[in-house]
Amino acid sequence: MDFVTIIDYIGTFAFAISGVRLAARKNFDIFGAYVVGFVTAVGGGTIRDLMLSLTPFWMLQPSYIIVTAIALLTVIIFKKWIVRLEYTFFFFDALGLGLFTVVGVDKTLAAGFPMWVAMIMGCITGAAGGMLRDIFINEIPLIFRKDIYAMACIGGGFIYWLCRKLGTPMIIVQSVAALSVVLIRVLCVHFKINLPSLSGDGSSQQ
Amino acid sequence: MDFVTIIDYIGTFAFAISGVRLAARKNFDIFGAYVVGFVTAVGGGTIRDLMLSLTPFWMLQPSYIIVTAIALLTVIIFKKWIVRLEYTFFFFDALGLGLFTVVGVDKTLAAGFPMWVAMIMGCITGAAGGMLRDIFINEIPLIFRKDIYAMACIGGGFIYWLCRKLGTPMIIVQSVAALSVVLIRVLCVHFKINLPSLSGDGSSQQ
Amino acid sequence: MDFVTIIDYIGTFAFAISGVRLAARKNFDIFGAYVVGFVTAVGGGTIRDLMLSLTPFWMLQPSYIIVTAIALLTVIIFKKWIVRLEYTFFFFDALGLGLFTVVGVDKTLAAGFPMWVAMIMGCITGAAGGMLRDIFINEIPLIFRKDIYAMACIGGGFIYWLCRKLGTPMIIVQSVAALSVVLIRVLCVHFKINLPSLSGDGSSQQ
User: Fold this and answer.
1) Considering the entire predicted model, what is its pTM?
2) Mutate which of A59, A65, A76, A137 to disrupt the B interface (most B C-beta within 10 Å)?
3) How high is the ipTM of this complex?
4) Who has the most CB within 10 Å: A152, B114, B159, C31?
């Protein structure tokens, strides 16, 4: 198992945990919580693969359904402690976001699409799972209202493009881009940097 | 028209009725109710077909849009009686769930995927239509919170796998698996067997 | 740039504006508003293309992400005036609906499907973007409850089919069908013509 695979599983695990926990708060049963966790973890990549006319990645090997099962068990067993590990999970989640973005960009370029499509697909890979999760639990998707989240993916995609333009070796392009996403995400939350909202008087009457 | 086709139409009809009725309770207009009924009936199979890179099954013959139209007419004409037929519809719905599960498993194996993917696709075929219905009418999907529903599909998929391992002829594998789903569903509702919920103190503060 | 392309961009612009404005009213941030605007504009065509096993149209040229960006800027800059332009946007929206319907019908027939599938795809192309928008902002899709909207697409598809049966030249078939959608939509709103709702006493207790 190489480094990228390990990070991929960590990201999947962190995303699944976030889905399971939110489902638990809405009184979903165990199976429902598993489904929400799974969709949170693989939903973004599934939408990406469908748009690229590829078979969804999680159908090609069972590891993702297993990692989600471990995430479910973790929440069941350690639920008293998980709250205290809030920051740890936030960090894993940011790590997953960074890696998922890079995976999405890579896969889209490999399918022959231009960079701007790859940036959108990187963003979908990283952020759409959380969006589906929020639709499933009947909440307005958080990523549209709070914090820099999907924008961090766009930032990472831009860094990816920049590094490639400069002729950087691929492994460094990927690492730098993934780290940029993590950094943008962590710094924006730490310093409470948000995008301005569009709430306007003019537009509030339809 | 063979036996499976008849059961397939009965399942489609029962699923469409459930969509139309829930839409009616939310004051949808006739066209909206038709759309919700149609999505409930064919939504699961459509997601399955997109993931298997196949053309959605209902685009290949008009029978499913016709069955949904009959379901809509049935609700309009017989709405006074339909409430009393609650149990009848519950039984049709369980029957549809069983058959849809088996259709999903069959189609996925025929597309060359392993059994564990087929079990997931069987579950999606049976349960995702009802999930889309609940998202459309802006409710938290019922299947995540109440009764054994999607889990019955997983159970049926497991029985399918078991029978095949034992070398049972295909027609018996399919029948036994579909009946298992119906039985699990009916018995769990009858004896009020539910999966435990995950609501925990620890996980309730995010 | 030919006439159809111009109308296509106008429709995209109008749909994007409607998404951005509704997102603004829900306090989405700028990026969230952009995403909702984009999904409103291209969501219907994307679902159509996935069902036809085609690459989503907006991935083939960047104009749609640019038009959406212009729509976002327009709302930001002119938000005081945009309310007064309500009727103008309503008209653009109806124009977009008409053209999107015809594009959907054309593309589906070109992919070798029969007319009834093309009519459904025309309807999905025109109306599904607005439906996704409403799911994203956590509202019950308006198109299911108010006004003749998706039904106008079905009407346009029917006119398309009728004109083709009569041997009308293609450019006239397309124009007449698109205009029918606009006309049905505008007249129904003007004269407050609605489809009957299905709210029934019988079906309200489940």
Assistant:
1) 0.90
2) A59
3) 0.86
4) A152
